[in-house]
Design goal:
eight-stranded mixed sheet; Aminopeptidase; EC 2.3.-.-; acyltransferase activity; 32% helix; 31% strand; Acyl_CoA_acyltransferase; 196 residues; alpha+beta
C-alpha cells in the first residue's frame, strides 16, 4: 500500500482512542485519570529514571493534566498517537506506548514505550507494542524505528522482540536528563520485513 501524506494523515487522525487486547485496554490520555497516573509514576521514579526523560523530577497533577490535554490535541491532529496501558484484570495503570516523529513522505515514525515495574516480565508491554507496530503497518507506514539509550538494554530487548533489527549507533546524539552526552542505538523494522 502506498499513500500520499494527506490520506495517511487522515488515517492517523482517525486512530482508535481505545483498543482491547487479550490482557490490556489501550486508551488515549484521559484527563480524569491524571491523579492516578501521577501517583503511580511518582511511586516508580527510581525504576523509570534514568530512561524516561520526563521523570527527572517528581510529577505534579497539574502538569500531568496539562500534558494530557496537549497529547489529546496532538492525537486528534494525527501528529502523535499515544495510548496508556490499563490491565483488564485489575484496572491498574501500567505504562504507555506512542507513535511519534512522523515523516509522512516516507512514511515512517518512531515507537516509544515504557512500563511501570508491576507489569515487568509479563509480556504486557510487548503485547501493546506489537499491536502498535501492526496498526501502523496497516495504515501504510513503510518503516518504524525505536531510538534507545545505548545503556538501556531492556529497551533494546523490547525492540528485538518486535522483530526490529539493530541498524547502528548514533554517537553523542543527544543529552540525557543529567546533561551528559549519550549514544542512541537505532532499531527499525520495515513493512517488507515485518513479522509473518
Amino acid at each position: 500500500m502506498s499513500l500520499t501524506p494527506e490520506p495517511l494523515l487522515e488515517r492517523l487522525k482517525a486512530a482508535p482512542t481505545e483498543v482491547r487486547l487479550s490482557r490490556l485496554c489501550l486508551r488515549w490520555p484521559e484527563p480524569d485519570t491524571a491523579a492516578l497516573r501521577t501517583q503511580a509514576i511518582n511511586a516508580a521514579l527510581p525504576f523509570l529514571n534514568p530512561w524516561v526523560w520526563w521523570t527527572e523530577q517528581p510529577l505534579n497533577e497539574a502538569r500531568v493534566l496539562e500534558r494530557t490535554l496537549e497529547a489529546r490535541d496532538a492525537f486528534e491532529q494525527g501528529r502523535f498517537q499515544i495510548w496508556h496501558l490499563w490491565s483488564l484484570e485489575t484496572g491498574a495503570f501500567l505504562g504507555g506506548i506512542d507513535l511519534h516523529s512522523w515523516d509522512l513522505d516516507v512514511p515512517r515514525c518512531q515507537l516509544g514505550y515504557w512500563a511501570l515495574p508491576d507489569s515487568a516480565g509479563q509480556g504486557l508491554l510487548t503485547e501493546a507494542c506489537r499491536w502498535a507496530v501492526d496498526w501502523a503497518f496497516a495504515q501504510g507506514v513503510a518503516r518504524i524505528e525505536a531510538f534507545c539509550d545505548s545503556r538501556n538494554h531492556a529497551s533494546h530487548r523490547m525492540a528485538q522482540r518486535l522483530g526490529m533489527q539493530r541498524e547502528g549507533i548514533l554517537h553523542a546524539y543527544t543529552r540525557d536528563m543529567h546533561g551528559e552526552l549519550e549514544d542512541e542505538v537505532v532499531f527499525a523494522i520495515t513493512r517488507a520485513g515485518q513479522r509473518t
